[in-house]
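=== Structure Prediction Worksheet ===
Name of assembly: unnamed complex
Input type: mixed (protein and possibly other molecules)
Chain count: two
Listed entries:
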Amino acid sequence: MTAVFGVPLPAILGQLMLGLVNGSFYALLSLGLAVIFGLLGVVNFAHGAFYMLGAFAAYIGLQFLGVNYWCALVLAPLAVGLLGIVIERLFLRHLYQLDPLYGLLLTFGIALIAEGIMRGLFGASGKSYPVPESLQGGFNLGFMVLPIYRAWAVFASLTVCGVTWFLIERTRLGAMLRAATENARLVQAFGINVPLLVMTTYGAGVALAALAGVLAAPVTQVSPLMGSSLVIVVFAVVVIGGMGSIIGAIVSGLVLGMIEGLTKVIYPEASNIVVFVVMAVVLVWRPTGLFGRE
Amino acid sequence: MLKSVTGAFGAILSLYAYSQAAAAGDQIVIGDIDDLSGVYADVQGQGGVEAANMAIADLGGTILGKKVIVLSVDHQNKPDIGASKFREWADQNGLNMLLGGSNTGVSIAMAKVALAKKVPFFAIGAGGASLTGADCTPYSIHYAYDTTALGNGTASAIVKQGGKTWFFVTADYAFGTQLQEAAARVVTANGGKVLGAVRAPLGTTDYSSFLLQAQASGAQVLGLANAGTDFSNSLKGANEFGITKTMKPAALLAFISDIHSLTLQTAQGLYLTTAWYWDLNDETRAFAKRFFAKMHREPTMTQAAYYSATLQYLKAVKTVGSTDPDLIMAELKKTKINDMFTKNGYIRADGLMVHTMYVMQVKTPAESKYPWDYYKVIKVMSGEEADGAQPDPACSLSKK
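=== Predicted Assembly ===
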């Protein structure tokens, strides 16, 4: 058997594959964060909570309303995105003129409230969400069995990342958005409804988090704490990629997932902190992040 | 400013005095400190409280003219919370006896409080054998099961069937490591070999990378030294990644609540060791029926043990005619335990309740004839066979 650093190759390939799966979740989550931060300047600490609410929306839909996985994939992000819009309208909007710290505190509070409510309703132990029938089973890759569902999750999240990047960087709508963040007044003077644009953007960013939640539901447990354990890593990913950089969020999400996977074979004890080590190194070397603009 | 501070201080003092008065001996107070919201919440949780209340109701609700009440709190799997709540109840609420829920780490911390406060402590949900070994106290009773019995039951059954090489996925705290040690001892003693182990944090939801490490070891048996949702998540992952096709999973601790949530389709064929099963005989079925009417699920072995421990404690109070902890402990240690939980159980010098244990195999969906018909008995182990006849030499009480 071939070995690298004394570790058998199949083990490395297996962990890399898992890293890719995790990385695609990082990418999707940090993408939403990057969109919100890049275009609104809000440090959205509630992102993990929206991810959790997306998973719960899917779970509630399946258990109580008979909504299957495929419908949940559309409906849950819509529902949670709407909630995001309500929150933007009622609270967040008033904080744009203030220091970003206020937005951070507000969203952090919202995250705590959302977690508390879900814990009260469903307990902390988590609910399991079955893998949809058409995605059960696995491919035998030789070095490991890759469950079909995880392959699907990677595919779905990469597709969504690609589409979002295209929307923002290559379309007229995206151009308007970027212009509005540069100079809101001027864009408004051209007759574009900037507050509406900003509100929709926040809703879309939140919907991305909820979509990640639905994709993650069959992989992990649907639990009130699933978001808070992930959001810190995702913030590190965004910082590494460069705050607000769309492509940075996607690339660094995937790469960090795989670095984490590699660490699990080479030195497992460090796998929980490797992301933060990378973050520290990147911040020293390039304070704006890998893809960040000055 | 000073005035308001002294005022507040006075108010606190008077509140304290009030709670002291309320606790002054007109009640028998039983405490339950358990994981009510985390990975082990389904193992006993609210069902444990219900079982204790059933025992109280069966004895008429009052003993020696005192009303029996149950206090319950969530320790959130944090030893400091468990120990400080125990201390608070002992100091302020007149606690007479404590039922300890899941989590060996928390129970070890609470055993120290039991010794300091002289409160009889029934460790039920926790499995770590050190509770009657290095961590034993004169006031601790390890009631339902321990890691030694689990190893002697499940691990020896699997090694004898040819599962010689093992890899462990272990919960990363006192319980997991003690369970792994107990199982590894049995594996090596029976000519098997442990190829490796990986420790996963309590409450891990995605076991995929740990499981791939297990697979890479080439071992025949996947030893799951964990419990609660950790157990069901790791087994689900093993199925999903096709690992159960090449490795035989060994459930070193599984409760019927886990099997229920996993479904027979996933859990069929598993070996596990249990102290009690609802469908063993008429007596167990009668208890289960009453429990089911309230909780809408069959009781786990530890919920049954909550009932039994409460019953035996209150009976001892009745016999002794007081709640004096030393008299009660002496009475409990000399009396045989006979109820629907076990027959002829007895409490060893080190505090372990020695009783019959069962090695079970989970039925296939075809074998299961009615709801919750999950286990078939593979082997009945006497208490001595499960835990050894001699008290644990690591316990200071054993040397008398």
